[in-house]
Design brief:
Blueprint (H helix, E strand, L loop, with lengths): L6 H24 L6 H14 L3 E2 L11 E5 L2 E3 L13 E10 L2 E10 L5 H19 L7 H14 L3 E2 L5 E3 L6 E5 L16 E4 L2 E3 L5 E3 L6 E3 L5 E3 L2 E6 L2 E4 L4
Antiparallel strand pairs: 1-4, 2-4, 3-12, 4-5, 6-10, 7-8, 7-9, 9-14, 10-13, 11-12, 14-15
Length: 248
């Protein structure tokens, strides 16, 4: 069942989203060669709790940390660790904050120092694909319109669009209906209505789109070891169109 949110609920989610956006602003300043993702996890958890919220991911279905880390060929759901980030790495940090009963959820890919032109282009296409998807979160459109736009754009560059993991509704639960694939056909899927709150999060790879799961049962990687980027915002659908909740 798709849960429509009231204006009051959306305002609470806006504050949850602001907390998440603050975390990403801190991460953008901290991510440099030599820092560990375990340090980043501690920094994010401290900020979330100082803002009167709790980390959405920590303890969710047994996940052990405040952030999900996707380094280089990892697609999503990796654990923070003690290994220092290296110049030329790309790392996606997924942050969630639970505030007054509602979640905000946003992931962003960061370059660690200088990266190649090939990776810079992948990152730019990943970001653009997110915003193309957001533009189509309009009342009267369908969920399939979002995925079709993302897939069409990313595949122009011969990139892979991950299919095993998708976007989702978000609210009192971290994962709600509807699922939002980042591929597919336009004019299919559930009708988009004002009051929906959605997390759109395309995962785009330099190679094949298929994933393989590590033995930890969480960490998903590209099957061919290719680099993956991911960009995600939580948004509210209003009568006037989409409003991003996870930015300052």
């Amino acid at each position: 069942m798709i849960i429509l949110k009231s204006a009051r609920e959306i305002e609470i989610m806006r504050e949850a989203g602001r907390i998440v956006a603050e975390c990403h602003r801190i991460l953008a300043e901290r991510i440099k060669p030599g820092i560990t993702t375990l340090e980043l996890d501690q920094t994010v958890e401290k900020h979330i709790r100082q803002r009167g919220a709790t980390p959405s991911f920590k303890g969710h279905q047994g996940f052990p940390a405040a952030i999900c880390v996707a380094l280089n060929d990892v697609i999503c759901h990796g654990f923070p660790g003690p290994e220092p980030l290296q110049k030329g790495d790309v790392v996606t940090i997924d942050v969630g904050a639970f505030y007054k009963g509602y979640h905000g959820d946003s992931a962003w890919t960061y370059a660690v120092g200088e990266v190649s032109e090939e990776i810079r282009q992948l990152m730019e296409v990943g970001r653009k694909s997110l915003y193309l998807g957001i533009e189509l979160a309009q009342p009267g459109n369908r969920i399939g319109d979002i995925g079709a736009a993302i897939q069409t754009y990313a595949e122009k560059y011969r990139y892979g669009v991950v299919r095993e993991f998708c976007g989702h509704g978000v609210g009192q639960n971290l994962w709600e209906s509807p699922q939002i694939p980042h591929f597919g056909r336009a004019n299919t899927g559930p009708l988009i209505k004002a009051g929906m709150t959605l997390a759109i999060e395309p995962m785009i790879t330099l190679g094949k789109w298929k994933a393989v799961l590590d033995k930890d049962g969480w960490t998903a990687r590209t099957v061919d070891g290719s680099i993956c980027v991911q960009y995600e915002h939580t948004l509210a659908v209003t009568a006037e169109g989409p409003v991003i909740l996870t930015e300052i």
